[in-house]
Amino acid sequence: MATENALIDGALRNWHSNMDRVGRFFRSLSDDDLQKEIAPGKNRLIYIWGHLSATNDRMIPLLGFGERRYPELDLIFISQPDRAVPHNFAGEAMGDMWSQLGDLLWSEFAKLTPAEWLDRHQAASPEDFEREPHRNRYTILLGRTTHLAYHLGQAILVKR
Amino acid sequence: MATENALIDGALRNWHSNMDRVGRFFRSLSDDDLQKEIAPGKNRLIYIWGHLSATNDRMIPLLGFGERRYPELDLIFISQPDRAVPHNFAGEAMGDMWSQLGDLLWSEFAKLTPAEWLDRHQAASPEDFEREPHRNRYTILLGRTTHLAYHLGQAILVKR
Question: What domains are there in chain A, each with its CATH number?
Fold first, then answer.
């Protein structure tokens, strides 16, 4: 059990560290900064922050933690590219959402046993999971952590 | 034991998937493409590939797998910024190095038991490790996986 917990602890530390870096980076920006593109013709910073927030919100039902808090984010930040859907999200509202979702996920993570981490996530059917036991909560945590890092690497290209 | 192995399997899958994406992306580029910058005034693609290769090479002694294969990469791709040190690395040599290092790490990973994954890495002294048991091989694997994703997110901004 000690071994299992240490492995999970490592993954939680990595998640937390990336969440913290993303949150600190975006909170340091003005609303004008958030309108900047990461590279010419590419996504704006506000889009990346919204995309990561929507991804976190989707983790709530995916990991069996309850209902989504901000399902309206998907249309703007996931299913459509940047600038396709007009919106009024600015830094303060985004920062509040980021904290709320981060706190919610973190407190739910803390309740899971190792066996629950390895249980299937809600996008895999019991039959899928029988064939592909890696479609579990733990691999979602790992994959979402690399997803944070992937977009953080892009966002950080914009100097203030 | 089954639980421990499933947790480690998840982390190895995430590493492998990111290594594979990075390798496929860079191999698809010509030597001219590799000279492109990820954004105006930022690192060139060849530098990012070299930086990730050097990081992989450093994992060999860090994880106790033996001597480094390409220690000369550090001066060009780690300790100095892009363009500071002239070099002649091009796609074919980089691709060979990438495969060799990826194969070496992968075959060493496969030999480790869960307890060995949780043993200290070589940049932590026994005293450090006593105080900070998360300074182990497993958290290096997780951290290096997010590092791959961080730079892949940047590299991918360059359209061919």
Answer: 2-155 (1.20.120.450)
